[in-house]
């Protein structure tokens, strides 16, 4: 899968006449070198057909402050600003233009619509939930991990469908977050807002061998286990860092 993505990415670069990034492409990531943010953004947009846009990024001499005007930003660097979320695209030329001017910008996925959605929860609770789901034989999709949270990507869902699903629950912990229509998710290998780096706990896989379509479970298949795991976190997980 990595080799296929790498070949597609290089063909895309050649077509755009865009120079190879300083770090190696996806096909060589297995050698221990991470793909560049541009490579990751192009792969998501042009190969996976996921709409992306650059996050606002960091500012200041120590790169600790968010580049947005809010001095108390709670997710420094890891949110849309300029361009706004509605600008998210799968157009490779637009993506290349953005990252050629801001090569360190985080990669944001605009969730919902035809794009994947996600459910996220604190990392320790998520790890327990994943073990439980694996034991139940549930086939999971991609999992995006930061030092504090894991996000399980799922098939697109509507707000109405999500509302009906959650209404049937006795309690939904405040630490459980949903990234649906109008939302966004930070993707690897972006820097995480609280420090460290975003990574794939589980990388995207094809629906079946040779398929162009990626596997994404339905949200109903994972929510029950995630609610149970998040409820068992201290204080329901509500005090854990984003």
Low-confidence stretches: 21-34, 235-242
Q: What share of residues are in beta strands?
A: 15-25%
Task: Give the strand order of the largest sheet, numbering strands 1, 2, ... along the chain.
Answer: 8-5-7-6-10
Largest sheet: 5 strands, antiparallel
Order of helices and strands: HHEEEHEEHEEHEEEH
What gap, in angstroms, lies between the N and C termini?
Answer: 31 Å
How does this model look, in words?
The two termini are 31 Å apart. The strands form 3 sheets. The protein has a 5-stranded antiparallel beta sheet. Strands 1-4-9 form a 3-stranded antiparallel beta sheet. Helix content is 29%, strand content 16%. By secondary structure, it is an alpha+beta fold.
Features:
disordered C terminus; alpha+beta; three-stranded antiparallel beta sheet; single chain; 6 helices; five-stranded antiparallel beta sheet
